């Protein structure tokens, strides 16, 4: 996928046009993790640092348009492989032939018996895993409730093809929170304090995601089927083709970032909306929850051929 990028890195002066700042591009290149980039696109970042590319920076969404830069990660969440008195909330594998049933229909009519792949002790965890698209499941012994000592990675498999409605937006519209305060931590607090009301709002999102368990040799992939690399991979609107190189330039002057489009999601809409993958586990989840930054998004085009 990235061979076209690497093949295009010929000795030439760097040329930057459009609204993006050359300084921001330089800062992003200098701050990037070479090892992470080499796992995603070998040879690309060193060549950029050496100035060995013809680069055109095109503003996305129109001159002066400001988008939103957020982040996501793969959470580690405790679960059981079968239903227990405490773990009653499931995630499902995809049914053969798919389904158009809504989230409410699946929950209220128990439409997917036998397809449960994990059970959780609250309804918010499986909901957020669906929003996120992947998770590390730390298995519990169903009898003792203690850690069983093994883990599995589950990833997005299929959807019911319905549109996505944001739980955070619904909570704001219902007066539970202010827009500027909304975060993953706040959603968890709201669920703990107003469990029935928040779970009723969750059913208003008709979209439902199905999962599969990775084998030991499988890589963690996003919904576009591309392995995710922490600090490099981006989830975007389909307007950005897989493999597109983007520059994210926060308007507050904080560190700009380079990334490659590897993933997508129903909540990521528009050319100026970008979600950056930060990795696995609690630290990555905590860091991701802090990233909500207005930013300019510019596409880096590396011409191929003479």
Task: Note the topology.
Elements: H1 3-7, H2 22-31, H3 34-40, H4 44-49, E1 56-59, E2 67-74, E3 76-79, E4 89-92, H5 103-109, E5 116-120, H6 124-132, E6 134-140, E7 147-159, H7 167-173, H8 184-193, H9 195-202, E8 209-213, E9 233-236, E10 245-250, E11 257-263, E12 273-280, H10 282-289, E13 292-301
Parallel strand pairs: 2-12, 3-6, 9-11
Antiparallel strand pairs: 1-13, 2-13, 4-5, 6-7, 7-8, 9-12, 10-11, 10-13
Helix pairs in contact: 8-9
Write a brief caption for the model.
Helices cover 25% and strands 28% of the residues. It has 10 helices and 13 strands.
Describe, in plain words, how this protein is organized in 3D:
The protein is built from 10 helices and 13 strands. It has 306 residues and is α+β, with helices and mostly antiparallel strands. The protein folds into 2 domains: 3-72 and 222-301, Barwin-like endoglucanases (Beta Barrel); 74-213, Beta Barrel (Ribosomal Protein L25, Chain P), CATH 2.40.240. It has a 6-stranded mixed β-barrel with strand order 2-12-9-11-10-13. Helix 8 (184-193) packs across helix 9. The longest helix is centred in the N-terminal third of the chain and has 10 residues, at 22-31. It is globular, with a radius of gyration of 21 Å.
